[in-house]
Amino acid sequence: MTTHTYGMTALDPAADVRRHISLSDTVSQTLTMAWRSYKKMMRNPEEFFDVLVQPLLFTAMFAYVFGGAISGDVKSYLPLLIPGILAQTTMTACIATGTQLREDMDKGVFDRFKVLPIARIAPLAGPMVADLLRYTIATTLTFATGFAMGYRPGGGVLGVLAAMVLVIFTGWSLAWIFTFVGIIGKSSKSVQGMSMMIMFPLTFVSNAFVGANTLPGWLQHFVQVNPVSHVVTATRDLANQGHLSAQVGWAVVADLAVVLIFSTLSVRAYRRKAI
């Protein structure tokens, strides 16, 4: 009787297939995961609560409470406020990405993904593609609320559309930060807590709601390097003036840098969890 000895790699065909996944396969698998997340959102309409209510609530609250003190009246404050609300709303929506990821991992959903011959990035990027719908709803409602309160962007339709695209892309890029937090966090509560600690300094220690020149000198240094400040300024240039300024370019560069850094960190952390 002849005994055949086989290498360990022959017993793990999924691992072998993963090494040869093409870019087109990765895109297809990511879209499949996005469709899964989209159907999950449709079955749970409460997941849209934050992007439906927050734009209305925060725009009205900030405008009527701070408008007179900062700009003299509400209407004059809106060109400054609306881009800031866009940044805040999008970042708040991003937090849900990390929290839901952690909940899925705790339920064992990702344990099944780990044994499938798919790209490691697909289960992470898929939900983020589906979340583009949430960011689109949030930006649309923020602008609509501003219009109802008297906001008239000087950039016209094209300027507003360009500003929306920039904010949505920024939301998608920042979601990678919270994806990484979702992977390394121990529970959904800890992920939410860490995410809030990231969101508040980035949004409130910026030029989102007040001019940077009104802040203390030592604080202005952080505001100037805060990526949210670049995005807010770029959004104001596009929506209020229709101007494709250098700030728009810097905002895109900052977004791409965030994607490059945190997508790499997220995939590496996910691989370590899979071992």
From TrEMBL:
Domain ABC transmembrane type-2: from-to ranges: 46-273
Please state where this protein is localized. Cell membrane; Membrane
Specify one Pfam family: ABC2_membrane
Q: Name one GO biological process term.
A: response to antibiotic
A GO molecular function assigned to this protein is: ABC-type transporter activity
Record-linked InterPro entries: ABC2_TM, ABC2_TM_bact-type, ABC_2_transport, Nod_factor_ABC_transporter
Q: Where are the transmembrane segments?
A: 48-70, 76-97, 132-151, 157-184, 196-219, 248-270
Q: Does the keyword Transport apply?
A: yes
How does the entry describe its membrane topology? Answer: Multi-pass membrane protein
For this UniProt record, the keywords arranged alphabetically read as follows: Antibiotic resistance, Cell membrane, Membrane, Transmembrane, Transmembrane helix, Transport
GO cellular-component term (any): ATP-binding cassette (ABC) transporter complex
Similarity section: Belongs to the ABC-2 integral membrane protein family.
The protein's name is Transport permease protein
Q: Which organism is it from?
A: Nocardioides mangrovicus
